[in-house]
Amino acid sequence: MPYSRHGVAVLTPDRRSLGPRAFSACGAGLKCALALLLVSFFTALAGAPSGATQNVVDGPYGPEGPRLREQLWILPSGDPNRYLRGTVFRPDDPVGSVAPVRRPLVVINHGTNEWTRTAVSMPVFYWLSRWFVERGYVVVLPQRRGHGATGGPLSEAVGTCAKPDHFASGQVAADDIAAVVDYMNGQDFVAPAQTIVVGVSTGGWASLALASRNPANVRAVINFAGGRGGHADGEANAVCGISELIKAAGAYGSTARIPTIWFYSENDSYFSPGLARQMASAWSDSGGLADLNLLPAYGDDGHEIVDDRAGWDLWGPALARFLDAHGAPQAVAQRGPGPHPGGTGTTPVVSTVSSTGDSETPPSQ
Q1: Could you list the pLDDT tens digit for every one of the 365 residues in the chain?
Q2: How far, in Å, CA of 249 to CA of 166, rounded?
Q3: HSE-up of 357 (CA within 13 Å, CB side)?
Q4: DSSP label of 297
Q5: Is 319 in contact with 261 (CB distance < 8 Å)?
Q6: Strand, coil or helix: 202
Q7: What is the DSSP letter of 302?
Q8: Which class for 312: exposed (0-12), middle (13-18), buried (19 or more C-beta within 10 A)?
Q9: What stretches of the chain adopt beta strand conformation (E)?
């Protein structure tokens, strides 16, 4: 069964179930043990034969929590026989609202950590999510096929480190993102066709792959430290198939017409500023729109620029300007006529105005 070396497939025995290493890394606490048992349950469900997954019901499961209305969801994937687990965050509706407020959507896409891939908790990116929720967005964080509670085989790693297919790998991951975007655009609290797609590391690369398709319901793509094949053989700034990565960026850019903004830090140990420039140049030279932002050194490793509140001060102002320049929406609740789906009364209509973790540690070899 292939696994990924930071997003590049390598042959190894099948590891769909949680092994002792996952429990050892997690610790001995009751909270940790319960979390891993939950992950194990969902992993078994997601990895079951396709006939066994047909009875899965998509949508929310469990109540909203107090943290940004946090709620767990089951979501469709790029494979009709497999489902994703995800987290949804939402702003509070105005006091007295009878029906949900339709708000623009942000889909945040995680990276890949091979050592903890099958045991990792569902992505939250609290500070990145909160940045958007405070600006009126609904945020959904899907966990792609082959990761954590979603489980099952890793679909998005195509090729090997010696011969990677970064283009195809990104497109497979983009299939999961596209399925989530389409599904969430049908929810009664999401404003259709007002979606922003965000990705971190391999999730950033997958988001760029989605941009190459120009989906009609996506307004812009935000790439934080995106790429594939980083830390090849455990070495900082060594990348599996670096020339292929740059070539694939150019291929994506040749069809992408959605505006994109890219953030990389000076001390990113996976994808250096020099490589970021080469990828962005390949994208732009092929006709794509890439706003590259090289940020100062951040913490011990700039690859983790979205992991805490301090990151807001680095990327927040440029991101706000980008969203404003490209007319990205911010929700403004208004009452309007029309039946609310699934009930009586009126549905809030949203006019739009312009708005101003998962670190990836490679396996040791």
Answers
A1: 332 334 443 322 232 233 333 333 344 444 444 444 444 444 444 444 333 344 678 899 899 999 999 999 999 999 999 999 999 999 999 888 888 899 999 999 999 876 677 778 889 999 999 999 999 999 999 999 988 899 998 889 999 999 999 999 999 999 999 999 999 999 999 999 999 999 999 999 999 999 999 999 999 999 999 999 998 888 998 999 999 999 999 999 999 999 999 999 999 999 999 999 999 999 999 999 999 999 999 999 999 999 999 999 999 999 999 999 988 765 544 333 333 333 323 323 332 322 223 333 332 22
A2: 9
A3: 16
A4: P
A5: yes
A6: helix
A7: G
A8: middle
A9: 2-4, 9-11, 59-61, 71-76, 83-89, 105-109, 138-143, 195-200, 218-224, 260-265, 290-295, 329-339, 346-354
Where exactly are the structural domains of the chain? 2-354
Classify domain 2-354 at the CATH topology level: Rossmann fold (3.40.50)
b/e code 266-276 from CB counts within 10 Å (16+ = b): ebbbbbbbebb
Tokens matching residue 221: 């793509």
Distance of CA 231 to the CA centre of its chain: 20
SS3 256: coil
